[in-house]
Design goal:
The protein is built from ten helices and 13 strands. It has helices at about 20-25, 30-40, 50-65, 90-100, 115-125, 150-155, 205-225, 245-255, 265-270, 275-285, and strands spanning about 1-10, 15-20, 40-45, 75-80, 105-110, 135-140, 160-170, 175-180, 190, 200, 235-240, 295-300, 305-310. The protein has a five-stranded mixed beta sheet, sandwiched between helices. It is globular. Oxa(dethia)-CoA binds next to helix 2, helix 6 and helix 7.
């Protein structure tokens, strides 16, 4: 069996940090409400940066760390629901910025907050027949551009950012995946593109119920596929960073040991497709995530989509 191996990661957050305190001057909210309901204290919003800028910086970091050159990349995928343009894709523009070869397979994919894991799976499959042995998988979002900044139900939840991974295809490694989609348009929807101003519409409670159900189910399915009886047999669990209460709820249901489930939404908010690669990069750079570790990661979001992967780092 072959599996994707993540050789290195990178991340880029826009410079501007926006605290709950600052948002409470624009809408009727408070640091106390936002932090107690979501675990979020602050997030980054783009000012002059584009989604492409974030993707380029994160990708360059990952390529430098992997010591992989532009001439060795055969696949370039960007998970995003907030591309700079409906067309051209961010992946095509990234190809030009990074100097990737013309025959690189480049496209964006939209699986909302599950986008990075959909990208990882797709890149792994494409590498079987790609012109070169390495893939670049990026999650990049500028959600601040599609938010209604006067709606307290959503404007406190999201942040901008990008995370990237350089991936190769390795034989003899174990990896398991789960995927799903429910064809749901009422729980989360983003208007546009088009003349109508974009805005995120979300039934937070419905998404919360969906999230705790599919995250727990995905983890149980992945453990079973790997022949493990407890989540505590893993070294790390990295869930999409939408809400600390979702992560804590699942960790409690699975009787996870303290600290097994990583959380960083306090500083970034929900960065959708970027949240998992940003978290993986933080874990690698801080020395917590090391080669040989067994990592389980799960994304979920609009669609309603979800994806999980259990892999050896
Ligand atoms: O990437 C995946 C996408 N999204 C998610 O995973 C989101 C999942 N859902 C959630 O995280 C939570 O449902 C939210 C954080 C969005 C909301 O938390 P909640 O505990 O479900 O709150 P609620 O929507 O039931 O609102 C409770 C109250 C309401 O007031 P009333 O009707 O009880 O008077 C809201 O109007 O809190 C009010 N409220 C706020 N108050 C202060 C809603 N947003 C705010 C706010 N500040 N920002």
């Amino acid at each position: 069996m072959s599996a994707p191996q993540i050789l290195a990661t990178g991340r880029c957050l826009p410079d501007r940090v926006v605290t709950n305190e600052e948002l409470s001057k624009a809408v009727d909210t408070s640091d106390e409400w936002v932090f107690s309901r979501t675990g979020i204290h602050s997030r980054h919003f783009c000012t002059t940066e584009t989604g492409l800028d974030l993707a380029v910086n994160a990708a360059r970091q990952a390529m430098d760390r992997a010591r992989v050159t532009a001439a060795e990349i055969g696949v370039c995928l960007v998970g995003t629901f907030t591309p700079d343009h409906a067309s051209p894709s961010t992946a095509c523009l990234l190809q030009r910025e990074l100097g990737l070869m013309e025959n690189t397979i480049c496209f964006d994919l939209n699986a909302a907050c599950a986008g990075f894991l959909y990208g990882l799976h797709t890149a792994h499959a494409l590498l079987a027949d790609a012109p070169r042995p390495y893939a670049l998988v990026v999650g990049a979002e500028v959600i601040s551009r599609v938010m209604d900044h006067t709606n307290r139900n959503t404007c406190v939840l999201f942040g901008d950012g990008a995370g990237a991974a350089v991936v190769s295809r390795e034989e003899g490694r174990s990896w398991h995946t789960v995927f799903g989609s429910r064809g749901d348009r009422s729980s989360i929807r983003v208007q546009g593109p088009g003349p109508v101003p974009s805005a995120i519409h979300m039934d937070g409670k419905a998404v919360f119920r969906f999230a705790v159900e599919v995250v727990e189910q995905s983890i149980r399915q992945l453990l079973e596929k790997e022949g493990l009886s407890s989540v505590n047999d893993l070294d790390l669990v990295v869930c999409h960073q939408a809400n600390a209460r979702i992560v804590d709820h699942v960790a409690k249901k699975l009787k996870a040991r303290e600290g097994l489930f990583y959380k960083n939404m306090d500083r970034y908010g929900n960065t959708s497709a970027a949240s998992i690669p940003i978290a993986l990069d933080e874990l690698v750079q801080s020395g917590v995530l090391r080669p040989g570790m067994r990592v389980l990661t799960v994304g979920f979001g609009g669609g309603l989509t979800w994806a999980g992967a259990l892999l050896e780092w």
